[in-house]
Amino acid sequence: MLDHNALTIGFARRFTGYKRPELIFSDADRLARILSAHGRPVQILFAGKAHPADDIGKQHLQRIYHRTLDPKFGGRIAFLEDYDLHVAHFLVQGCDVWLNNPRKPLEASGTSGMKACMNGVPQLSIGDGWWAEGYNGHNGWLIDGGAPANDEGATDAADAEALYQILEREVVPAFYDRDGSGVPRRWLAVVRRAIVSVTPRFSARRMVKQYAEGLYSTAAGRTAPV
Predict the structure, then answer these.
(1) Which fold has domain 7-199?
(2) pTM for the full model?
Protein backbone atom coordinates (compact mmCIF):
# COMPACT_ATOMS: atom_id res chain seq x y z
CA MET A 1 0.00 0.00 0.00
CA LEU A 2 1.50 3.32 -1.07
CA ASP A 3 1.75 6.14 1.44
CA HIS A 4 0.44 9.29 -0.24
CA ASN A 5 2.16 11.49 2.35
CA ALA A 6 5.62 9.93 2.01
CA LEU A 7 8.44 11.32 -0.11
CA THR A 8 8.22 9.26 -3.30
CA ILE A 9 11.26 8.48 -5.45
CA GLY A 10 10.65 7.26 -9.00
CA PHE A 11 12.98 5.04 -11.02
CA ALA A 12 11.37 4.11 -14.34
CA ARG A 13 13.30 3.22 -17.50
CA ARG A 14 14.78 0.34 -19.46
CA PHE A 15 16.51 -2.10 -17.15
CA THR A 16 20.08 -2.77 -18.20
CA GLY A 17 23.46 -3.08 -16.52
CA TYR A 18 24.96 0.36 -17.09
CA LYS A 19 21.90 2.11 -15.62
CA ARG A 20 22.70 0.46 -12.26
CA PRO A 21 19.08 0.00 -11.11
CA GLU A 22 20.27 -1.67 -7.89
CA LEU A 23 22.76 1.00 -6.85
CA ILE A 24 20.47 2.33 -4.13
CA PHE A 25 20.51 -1.13 -2.50
CA SER A 26 24.31 -1.10 -2.05
CA ASP A 27 23.83 -0.74 1.72
CA ALA A 28 20.44 -2.32 2.40
CA ASP A 29 20.46 -1.54 6.13
CA ARG A 30 21.21 2.14 5.55
CA LEU A 31 18.52 2.33 2.88
CA ALA A 32 16.02 0.72 5.27
CA ARG A 33 16.79 3.41 7.86
CA ILE A 34 16.23 6.15 5.27
CA LEU A 35 12.93 4.66 4.15
CA SER A 36 11.57 4.15 7.65
CA ALA A 37 12.82 7.25 9.50
CA HIS A 38 10.25 8.31 12.07
CA GLY A 39 8.09 11.16 10.79
CA ARG A 40 10.02 11.32 7.49
CA PRO A 41 9.13 8.18 5.51
CA VAL A 42 10.41 7.58 1.98
CA GLN A 43 9.13 5.15 -0.64
CA ILE A 44 10.57 4.08 -4.00
CA LEU A 45 8.58 3.17 -7.10
CA PHE A 46 10.39 1.07 -9.70
CA ALA A 47 9.03 0.46 -13.19
CA GLY A 48 10.53 -0.67 -16.45
CA LYS A 49 11.35 -3.54 -18.74
CA ALA A 50 14.48 -5.27 -19.97
CA HIS A 51 15.18 -6.10 -23.59
CA PRO A 52 14.34 -9.78 -24.21
CA ALA A 53 17.98 -10.47 -25.11
CA ASP A 54 19.41 -8.58 -22.11
CA ASP A 55 19.87 -11.25 -19.46
CA ILE A 56 21.70 -8.90 -17.10
CA GLY A 57 18.84 -6.39 -17.29
CA LYS A 58 16.31 -9.14 -16.58
CA GLN A 59 18.30 -10.28 -13.55
CA HIS A 60 18.34 -6.73 -12.16
CA LEU A 61 14.59 -6.54 -12.61
CA GLN A 62 14.00 -9.89 -10.87
CA ARG A 63 16.18 -8.96 -7.91
CA ILE A 64 14.43 -5.63 -7.44
CA TYR A 65 11.07 -7.36 -7.55
CA HIS A 66 12.26 -9.64 -4.73
CA ARG A 67 13.37 -6.56 -2.79
CA THR A 68 9.75 -5.41 -2.72
CA LEU A 69 8.94 -8.52 -0.69
CA ASP A 70 11.74 -8.04 1.83
CA PRO A 71 10.23 -7.14 5.25
CA LYS A 72 13.37 -5.13 6.01
CA PHE A 73 12.02 -2.31 3.85
CA GLY A 74 8.60 -2.27 5.49
CA GLY A 75 6.64 -2.27 2.24
CA ARG A 76 8.21 1.01 1.11
CA ILE A 77 9.50 -0.36 -2.19
CA ALA A 78 7.11 -1.15 -5.03
CA PHE A 79 7.51 -2.45 -8.57
CA LEU A 80 4.88 -1.39 -11.09
CA GLU A 81 4.32 -4.07 -13.72
CA ASP A 82 3.38 -3.60 -17.38
CA TYR A 83 5.37 -0.38 -17.74
CA ASP A 84 4.24 1.59 -20.79
CA LEU A 85 3.60 5.18 -21.89
CA HIS A 86 0.41 5.33 -19.84
CA VAL A 87 2.21 4.34 -16.63
CA ALA A 88 5.13 6.65 -17.42
CA HIS A 89 2.69 9.53 -17.89
CA PHE A 90 1.52 9.18 -14.30
CA LEU A 91 4.96 8.55 -12.83
CA VAL A 92 6.63 11.68 -14.22
CA GLN A 93 3.80 13.70 -12.65
CA GLY A 94 3.12 11.80 -9.45
CA CYS A 95 6.58 11.19 -7.98
CA ASP A 96 8.45 13.74 -5.89
CA VAL A 97 12.00 12.94 -7.07
CA TRP A 98 13.28 11.31 -10.25
CA LEU A 99 16.28 9.03 -9.68
CA ASN A 100 18.80 8.28 -12.42
CA ASN A 101 22.17 6.72 -11.62
CA PRO A 102 23.81 5.35 -14.77
CA ARG A 103 27.49 4.50 -14.99
CA LYS A 104 29.15 7.60 -16.41
CA PRO A 105 29.70 8.27 -19.35
CA LEU A 106 27.28 5.73 -20.87
CA GLU A 107 23.99 7.65 -20.62
CA ALA A 108 22.98 9.00 -24.03
CA SER A 109 20.26 11.39 -22.90
CA GLY A 110 17.62 10.58 -20.28
CA THR A 111 14.40 12.09 -21.58
CA SER A 112 12.30 10.77 -18.68
CA GLY A 113 14.21 13.09 -16.37
CA MET A 114 13.45 16.06 -18.62
CA LYS A 115 9.74 15.24 -18.57
CA ALA A 116 9.78 14.79 -14.82
CA CYS A 117 11.42 18.18 -14.21
CA MET A 118 8.92 19.87 -16.50
CA ASN A 119 6.18 18.40 -14.30
CA GLY A 120 7.79 19.70 -11.11
CA VAL A 121 9.64 16.50 -10.18
CA PRO A 122 13.30 17.42 -9.53
CA GLN A 123 16.08 15.17 -10.76
CA LEU A 124 18.50 13.28 -8.52
CA SER A 125 21.09 12.05 -10.96
CA ILE A 126 24.64 11.31 -11.99
CA GLY A 127 26.18 14.14 -14.02
CA ASP A 128 25.78 12.30 -17.30
CA GLY A 129 23.44 12.49 -20.29
CA TRP A 130 21.24 15.58 -20.27
CA TRP A 131 21.81 16.27 -16.55
CA ALA A 132 25.46 17.14 -17.20
CA GLU A 133 24.07 20.14 -19.09
CA GLY A 134 20.80 20.65 -17.23
CA TYR A 135 21.96 20.75 -13.62
CA ASN A 136 22.65 24.29 -12.38
CA GLY A 137 23.16 23.72 -8.66
CA HIS A 138 19.65 24.80 -7.65
CA ASN A 139 17.18 22.75 -9.77
CA GLY A 140 17.83 19.27 -8.38
CA TRP A 141 20.71 17.21 -7.02
CA LEU A 142 23.93 15.86 -8.53
CA ILE A 143 25.33 12.47 -7.51
CA ASP A 144 29.13 12.58 -7.76
CA GLY A 145 31.17 10.13 -5.74
CA GLY A 146 34.40 11.37 -7.27
CA ALA A 147 35.93 7.91 -7.75
CA PRO A 148 38.10 7.16 -10.84
CA ALA A 149 35.96 6.04 -13.78
CA ASN A 150 38.29 3.16 -14.63
CA ASP A 151 37.43 1.27 -11.43
CA GLU A 152 33.78 0.20 -11.60
CA GLY A 153 33.67 -1.23 -8.09
CA ALA A 154 35.12 1.90 -6.50
CA THR A 155 32.87 4.11 -8.62
CA ASP A 156 29.74 2.20 -7.62
CA ALA A 157 30.66 2.34 -3.93
CA ALA A 158 31.47 6.06 -4.05
CA ASP A 159 28.32 6.93 -6.01
CA ALA A 160 26.16 4.90 -3.62
CA GLU A 161 27.67 6.74 -0.65
CA ALA A 162 27.06 10.09 -2.37
CA LEU A 163 23.46 9.06 -3.11
CA TYR A 164 22.79 8.14 0.51
CA GLN A 165 24.32 11.38 1.79
CA ILE A 166 22.24 13.51 -0.57
CA LEU A 167 19.07 11.72 0.51
CA GLU A 168 19.88 12.01 4.22
CA ARG A 169 21.23 15.57 4.26
CA GLU A 170 19.43 17.34 1.44
CA VAL A 171 16.46 15.66 -0.24
CA VAL A 172 14.59 14.28 2.78
CA PRO A 173 15.11 17.36 5.00
CA ALA A 174 14.06 19.73 2.20
CA PHE A 175 10.86 17.76 1.62
CA TYR A 176 9.83 17.50 5.26
CA ASP A 177 11.00 20.82 6.70
CA ARG A 178 7.86 23.00 6.81
CA ASP A 179 7.16 26.55 7.88
CA GLY A 180 4.46 27.59 10.36
CA SER A 181 1.81 27.08 7.69
CA GLY A 182 3.04 23.60 6.82
CA VAL A 183 4.60 24.69 3.50
CA PRO A 184 7.94 23.11 2.45
CA ARG A 185 9.41 26.32 1.06
CA ARG A 186 12.92 24.99 0.44
CA TRP A 187 11.48 22.05 -1.48
CA LEU A 188 9.16 24.21 -3.54
CA ALA A 189 12.08 26.47 -4.49
CA VAL A 190 13.83 23.45 -6.07
CA VAL A 191 10.61 22.42 -7.83
CA ARG A 192 10.15 25.88 -9.35
CA ARG A 193 13.75 26.08 -10.48
CA ALA A 194 13.45 22.65 -12.10
CA ILE A 195 10.44 23.73 -14.15
CA VAL A 196 11.82 27.14 -15.11
CA SER A 197 15.33 25.98 -16.01
CA VAL A 198 14.48 22.77 -17.87
CA THR A 199 11.33 23.51 -19.87
CA PRO A 200 12.68 26.21 -22.22
CA ARG A 201 15.99 24.44 -22.91
CA PHE A 202 14.91 20.83 -23.38
CA SER A 203 11.53 21.04 -25.11
CA ALA A 204 10.83 19.63 -28.58
CA ARG A 205 9.82 23.15 -29.66
CA ARG A 206 13.28 24.50 -28.81
CA MET A 207 14.94 21.60 -30.60
CA VAL A 208 12.94 22.00 -33.82
CA LYS A 209 13.45 25.78 -33.79
CA GLN A 210 17.19 25.38 -33.34
CA TYR A 211 17.41 22.88 -36.19
CA ALA A 212 15.34 25.11 -38.44
CA GLU A 213 17.28 28.28 -37.73
CA GLY A 214 20.75 26.84 -37.32
CA LEU A 215 20.79 24.15 -40.02
CA TYR A 216 17.90 24.07 -42.45
CA SER A 217 17.61 27.82 -43.10
CA THR A 218 21.37 28.14 -43.44
CA ALA A 219 21.54 25.22 -45.84
CA ALA A 220 18.64 26.55 -47.89
CA GLY A 221 20.35 29.93 -48.20
CA ARG A 222 23.47 28.35 -49.60
CA THR A 223 21.63 26.39 -52.26
CA ALA A 224 22.41 27.75 -55.70
CA PRO A 225 19.32 28.81 -57.68
CA VAL A 226 18.31 26.50 -60.50
Answers:
(1) Rossmann fold (3.40.50)
(2) 0.91
